[in-house]
Specification:
Number of helices: 4
Strand order of the largest sheet: 1-3-2
CATH architecture: Orthogonal Bundle
Strand content: 5-15%
Shape: globular
Structural class: mainly alpha
Largest sheet: 3 strands, antiparallel
Order of helices and strands: HEHHEEH
CATH class: Mainly Alpha
Helix content: 40-55%
Number of domains: 1
């Protein structure tokens, strides 16, 4: 798995969820608790998300290495990427069989316990 799947995407999802709850800002410590990632990993992730050409997040001290970063807003690019990731996951789930396929040959009478 890529760092996008294991680090940036979970941080982005957690930031979206916490900001949607009405928070004015979400700190690296908040995101660490929400994702289970270390604050160092969250801080590195926020730096990647903020430095991207067409950043995903805006906020305070996002490029600092001291763990004091705080997200105040997701960009339109972040919202598009989250929607794309949600769609891809929904497609994967819909491709999973809901039940076991019936066997090619019927079981002989009495093969199933009563």
């Amino acid at each position: 798995m890529s760092s996008w799947e294991t680090r940036e995407l979970p941080v982005l999802r957690a930031a979206e969820r916490l900001l949607a709850m009405g928070r004015a800002e979400v700190t690296a410590a908040d995101l660490s608790r929400a994702t289970g990632l270390s604050e160092a990993d969250v801080t590195a992730s926020l730096r990647v998300l903020a430095e991207a050409r067409g950043p995903y997040v805006s906020g305070h001290r996002l490029l600092a290495a001291d763990g004091e970063a705080a997200v105040t807003e997701l960009t339109a690019r972040a919202e598009q990427e989250l929607a794309r990731a949600d769609y891809a996951e929904a497609r994967e789930r819909s491709d999973e069989p809901d039940s076991v396929s019936p066997p090619d040959h019927p079981l002989p009478p009495g093969a199933l316990p009563r």
